[in-house]
Each structure stands twice: as structure tokens, then as C-alpha cells.
Amino acid sequence: MAETVLITGGAGFIGRYVADALLAEGHRVRVLDSLIDQVHGGRGRPEALHRDVELIEGDVRDEAAVAGALKGSDAVIHLAAEVGVGQSMYAVDRYVSVNDLGTAVLFQQLIARPVRRVVVASSMSIYGEGLYRSQDGTLVENAVRVPRTRPDQPWDPVDAAGTPLVPVPTPETKRPNLASVYALTKYVQEQLTLTLSPVYGMEGVALRLWNAYGPGQALSNPYTGVLAIFASRIANGNRPLVFEDGAQRRDFVHVADVARAFRLALARPEAAGGIYNIGSGEDRTVTEVATRLAESMGRPDLPPEITGKARTGDVRHNIPDIGKAQAELGYAAATDFGEGLAELAEWVARQERDTAQDRVAEARRELEARGLVG
């Protein structure tokens, strides 16, 4: 049955793909978005936002704007958030205000205007380090890395004997380990949704997203997804910066697959009250990803620059177990990684110069000035 779906933060990268997926199913889509400069560059309504989407420009912390956006809405997809682990460690008030106060304002208004279901975008970051296995096969949920004081010390978490632990897929049952302000705020968003929704007759669902990538990501935002940051560097003739030794493992999931997950989470009756990992199911080292992107962009002469330094709040390995999403949502990532990189490279090549400004050095200076890189 067609519904009117409100997407908070829906003019952003993921939101635009979610809107397209919902429109294709016959839903009416309304977006509430503040169009912040860091993401949208002061350009107003994004060209990529479908013309059939009703856009309300407003802040998720504004009670009147939220109340107006909720009128006539049947469901909510809550994407509105400040995004960036590193930046969250010094822009603390901003991240807590937008992410957590914004979610509180949304639910305060939902009390008077309840909807059928609220699906919130949570994050892999709430796990901190992913799940590991020791050499004897014991699963380790609470792996902690000791800061390196010598070059010969391992980057990986180790067991009591000093042997590196082996990363394994992380299930939703792993206990949170909140290592950054961003992670804290995403966990609050998730838990507010799952706690308050059933109290007021609504259904809450949380999707814990891994590293989304694809055409349309903000190339000039140095705190966006890592592939967009790498692409901006390469487009400007600079080598992508990779922290630590580059062997940290991540899962990269195409934004179209993420949008499909939101569509399924909105529709499947069995999803109510659930938490789901959303990734591709394939993990890679960050060095491999940077290298393959440079090759896809026709710049194999720009191999990644390995910094040998760590950022506060970063984790070593975190890869998802997506079995629950597959079983209960019918979710599966459909985009081949190589094809996704080629699509991203083609899109970047079509962008005007000012849409891919390389601001990584500026962001790094901000972190270093605050002692957040070492």
C-alpha cells in the first residue's frame, strides 16, 4: 500500500537513493533537510533529488519544522545526522545537538503525530572494534588496542601472550563499545527509536550501516565516506591518505544496496523492533580499496600514502555479519565492488572542478592541532 514517507536528512547522499527507491514503489516522499554547507556547499536543492520529492528546508531540531513535516506522514526514515568520527571528537556540542537532540525533538513531535514505523540509520561505529577470535578459537568481544609507543608494536589488538587477534564478522549481538562522540550519538539515536516507538504504538527499526559509497557523495566534505575522500584526492592529482599501515579491514557497500535495505526495513512486518547490520558481506583492506579506486580513475601513478599514524576514535577491524538481514529482511547486496568503483570513477570524472575540492589536509590539521592524530 502506498504511503507518505518522511525522510529526515533526505537531501543527502543516502537519502536521495532511498527517496528514489520509495518513489519507484509508488510511495509519496517528503524530505526535511537543513541543506548544511559542509554537505551541500550552499547550492540549495540538490539536482539529484528527484523532482517528485517534496522538500521542506528545515532543521530537525526545530519543533515547528518537524511538526509540519510529520503532518500526513505514514512512516519516517530518520537519516538526519552530523557524520564524521574525527570531527565529532572536537565538534562535540554540534554532534550531540544535531544527532541526539534532533532525534529527541523528532520523537517529541511523534508522540502527538505517531506513524506506523520509524527506521533509523545507526552505524557500525557503535561496535568499536569488531568481533575477534584468538589463536585458540575463543571469541573476543571487548578487544582493545594499546597505543603504540614503538614502531615494532603491532597495530592489531593482541591476546595476553601478545599474539594478534583475528577479525571475524561482527553480529548484532556484540556489545557496543563506543569509542567516539559520533558512535555515542548514533547509539543514542538508535536506542531512542527502539525505546520510544513501541511505547507510542509505533514500530522501530535500526539499520547499522557500514561504509556506503557511490555516485553523488559529497566530494568536498573531508569527513564524509572514505571512498569519496579518496576520490577527491585522486581527482586533484594527490595520493589518497591512508592512516595506520593500511591493513585495517572494512566492508564497503554500494548506496543503492543501502537504499534497498531501508525499503525492506520499512515494509517487512518481521522487521519491527529489529536491529540489522547492512554491508556487502565482503571485506577488504583500506590500502586495497585506495589502490583499486586510483586504478579505476585512470591514476595508477597515485598509490596510497601510508601515514603510519592513528586517529583517535578509529578502530582497527570491523566487518559485518549480515546473516540476520538476509534471513529476516530478504536483504542481499547486489552491486559488484569492481563495477561500483568503475561507476564512481565515471561519475567523478563528470563533476566540475569545484565539486571535488581536496580539503583532507585542512581536516588533518584540525585533528593534529587537537592531538587527535598520533
Describe what you observe in this structure.
This protein has 374 residues and is of the alpha/beta class. The protein is built from twelve helices and 15 strands. The protein has helices at residues 13-24, 37-40, 63-70, 85-88, 92-112, 181-199, 226-235, 255-267, 286-296, 323-329, 337-349, 360-369; strands at residues 4-8, 28-33, 54-57, 75-78, 117-123, 132-133, 139-140, 166-167, 203-209, 211-213, 241-242, 249-254, 275-278, 283-285, 305-306. The chain has a seven-stranded parallel beta sheet with strand order 3-2-1-4-5-9-13, sandwiched between helices.
Q: What layout of secondary structure does this protein have?
A:
Elements: E1 4-8, H1 13-24, E2 28-33, H2 37-40, E3 54-57, H3 63-70, E4 75-78, H4 85-88, H5 92-112, E5 117-123, E6 132-133, E7 139-140, E8 166-167, H6 181-199, E9 203-209, E10 211-213, H7 226-235, E11 241-242, E12 249-254, H8 255-267, E13 275-278, E14 283-285, H9 286-296, E15 305-306, H10 323-329, H11 337-349, H12 360-369
Parallel strand pairs: 1-2, 1-4, 2-3, 4-5, 5-9, 9-13, 10-12, 11-15
Antiparallel strand pairs: 6-7, 6-8, 12-14
Helix pairs in contact: 1-8, 3-5, 5-6, 7-9
